[in-house]
Amino acid sequence: MSETQPGGPSPTALHVPPPLDPSFRPAGRARRALEERIRASGRGVAVTLAVEQPGGTVSRRATVAWPDGHPEAARSHHHAERLLKTLLWARGGSRVHLDGPDGLIAYLRRHYAEDPTGIFDARIAAEIYLRPFELVRTPQAEMPPARGSSLALGGHLEGCRIGFDLGASDRKVAAVIDGEVVFSEEVPWDPANHADPQWHHDGIDDSLRRAAAHLPRVDAIGGSAAGAYVDNQVRVASLFRSVPRDLFEARVRGLFDELRRAWGGVPFVVVNDGEVTALAGSMMTGAGAFLGIALGSSEAAGYVTPERTLTTWLDELAFTPVDDAPGAPADEWSGDRGCGVQYLSQQAVGRLLGPAGIEVDPDAPLAERLVHLQALMAAGDQRAAAVYATIGTYLGYALLDYRELYDVEHLLLLGRVMTGAGGDVIIDRARAVLRAEDPSAAEAIIVHTPSERDKRHGQAVAAASLPALA
User: Fold this and answer.
1) R_g (Cα) of the chain, nearest Å
2) Cβ-proximal residues to 431 (8 Å cutoff; 6+ apart), any chain
């Protein structure tokens, strides 16, 4: 059971508050303020967290906590858990090494064994890496060093290729010949509410066939999808959340290998949709140190290193904490509060329409609510502008946290929420946050604005470049 809730002493008021969310309390900012206060007291205890993947990748972070017995020890326990959650979802791993006060380590053990949100995080980590989730007390002298890894994928555009992107509300596909798009389309679908794996198989195959009809042959197929994918296997994905476990193991885990065989064994690569967002930006600009974020039905993110390679990091920023307010909205899947999906996606749009005074059918799908918001924005409605400005504020403060995780020189924003005039408001507001809170960050990050076509279909085109031809 959790010993504390978000809240507590609040850091200095925000320089750029979100218009429709006065209670917003940026999670990273709150943690950094507490760390500064602990260090200034001279009573802090050093804490080291290291998250390890089965393949050897290790991500480390250092923080401080109040000593056991301090009246505010529970506050530092909460912020250490938020930091560890960020590492688990941004970097990924199934073994956690801990060094710190006894009380903190006991709290984290209880959290992952007893709290529903901790149990969710531990279960998903075990499912992604096919290893039991472990918390290991490791003295500082024995803590594993940080180790990275890279994947040489993408940038292959020769030949006749198909690229696809599977989202929660639509699937996109593109046919590409020697880097030129000859066909692309977007088809609505609702995968999370379908329990039959054959339905998913047939929908994806239909998109592939529709693209193939515009090619003289198919040399390779590349795809992106929401979720975690390792060696083309589906490990965890909300797209298949309604599929029973036995059918998931029998049909879903190897779904893309099944499709590869059906397409004659051509090179076939599938990765997380966020990775392809970053790859699309890197290909568009020829730059590395590139963070891509797609604000769609969820928040998808990916990273291309300064050397222009992908990584084995998880990059599931939809599950990393953004807001530390006590009443922050809960994610419908994990149940955790204040995570990115509720702030940088269509779910944020749906949540903010009411505070903006915009009435919609409460049963309307999120995609329809976004279309309504976009129409209001195009007509100059200031209520719609307030929704986009609020999302842009969220983005600005989130970027300050993401810079602790990634060496970011370039940022590409894609997804339906970024489409239209509202996307410009989001970017302008995020820049205003960076200028006000950390001018060096505003100078360091170049924000790229793709064409409207790239915003909607850029991921499918970049996905086509994933496989190298045999």
Assistant:
1) 22
2) 396, 442, 447
Find out whether 30 and 79 touch, Cβ atoms under 8 Å.
Answer: yes
> Is the Cβ–Cβ distance between 68 and 102 less than 8 Å?
yes
Question: What 3-state DSSP class applies to 111?
Answer: helix
Can you give the pTM of this predicted structure?
0.89
Taking only the tens place, the pLDDT of each residue in 194-209 is 999 999 999 999 999 9
Q: Is pLDDT larger for residue 9 or for residue 128? A: 128
Sequential DSSP letters for 155-201: ----SEEEEEEE-SSEEEEEEEETTEEEEEEEEE--GGG---HHHHH
Distance between CA atoms of residues 47 and 62, nearest Å = 6
Contact 75, 3 (CB under 8 A): no
What single-letter amino acid sits at 351? R
In which element (H, E) is residue 112 found? helix 102-114
Contacts of 246 (CB under 8 A, 6+ apart): none
User: How is 318-359 classified by DSSP, letter by letter?
Assistant: GGSB-B--TTPPBPTTT--BSBGGGTSSHHHHHHHTTTTT--
pLDDT of 1-57, one tens digit each?
Answer: 444 445 555 556 899 999 999 999 999 999 999 999 999 999 999 999 999 999 899
| Contact by Cβ (8 Å): 200, 238 | no
Do β-strands 446-448 and 410-414 pair in parallel, antiparallel, or remain unpaired?
parallel
Domain 150-470 has CATH 3.30.420.40: yes
